[in-house]
Amino acid sequence: MQTIFLKGRGEFEEWRDAARLLLFNDIEPGAVAWRIAGEGGALSGFAERQALALPAERRAVTVPPAFVDLAETVICHSEPGRFDLLYRLLWRLRGDRHLLQVVSDPDVMAARRLEKSVRRDSHKMKAFVRFKEVASSDPTGRRRSFLAWFEPDHFIVARMAPFFRRRFFDMDWVIATPKGSAAWDGEQLTVSDAPADKPEIRDDADDLWRIYYANIFNPARLKVKAMTAEMPRKYWKNLPEAELIPELIANAEAKVREMAERATSQPPAFHARLQARQAERGADDIVPAGSWEAVREAARACTRCPLHCHATQTVFGEGPKDARVMVVGEQPGDQEDLSGHPFVGPAGRLFDAVLSEIGVKRAALYVTNAVKHFKYEPRGKRRIHQKPNEAEIAQCRWWLKQEVDLIRPRLIVALGATAYFSLTGERRRLSDVRGQMLGMTEGRRLLVTVHPSYLLRLPDPQARQAEDARFREDLLHVLGAAS
To answer: Does 42 have pLDDT greater than 50?
Structure first.
């Protein structure tokens, strides 16, 4: 039995050198006992019972790069059996270079578990190291000195030290742990595997961490199991913000109720601004009943469907009151909802560009939408467009009919399936009616084409070019009707 003693502090080179000697001497894994130096008073070194030497004619041994990456990570684990496991894999790789691809192999599975644990520990170190300012050794006072205490599960200090050097290059720091320390003085990175004692240091940054954490904590999204999985309790004792967690969890339910009550009693800020604008209107602003202005004002207060609850405002049509051509889109988008004007977002700008190419002035057209409120789904800070359903289209059809009756256009252009359905009540494939001139009541005609947003969503440049050309051909009918 060959006994190998290693320091076992996460240094890959000492295991590699010992494994190479064993391999060149054809010593099987079962004939090797791996020990940590210092156990039973033993000193660090390769051999206890017999000397190992490189043979005069040794065979070249190569391993897949994936094994080196795996071994460099696994060697940082605190599991005593990691040395034997890695040597066993190395021995087997001589006969099967694809061994690491056999995910069901017990040795491969065991090594991957250790690798995952080390990587998770490394991730936690990035997340939970908290530097505290200490007295600076720089006589100029331009560099600040910081100290951090962290308690890793494995020997990852040397592995993680380069990351902290890159991340905190402009300050002097020391990271102390029970499994070694790392220090950076602005010029040299020093790593020691000697255990350190926990320092007792508090600074103003502790209060800043608590203020920050208290303000980003969202009780409505609290999931205790998920939180403790990402922020395990064993790290709490070294995190200043962790002092707040028990109280924040205990009061979460009450905070959610308070938020709900406040949300129902206090409308969003834009509602207040719109109401204030409406209150400023004087008696002279009253418009005659039955006019376009009267319908537009009535639409401002529309509550016919739930869409008004979340939209910023009603987006009514705009254009000449005697326009020969009316253009009907689907609904306002994000920019239209905020500005209160139709077709001012990306689709509107594309529409204007095509009109300009064919020689039609946007100012000559009456432009509106089948639905007057923006329907969306909030995702973080973004508002993602959602297609209105039939009930919402039906409720808004009343307003669209008022616009058609007042403007009395000769040609109506339906941009997309929603506009076509709102104007006709028919559910047909857009490709079946696109580009056609359809008859309507009172001698009016209907032209159906795609919505400009469809062109913006096309990923294939060639398809986009072809559809752009076809869209221009469709809108050429507008040129004759508008002139």
So the answer is: no
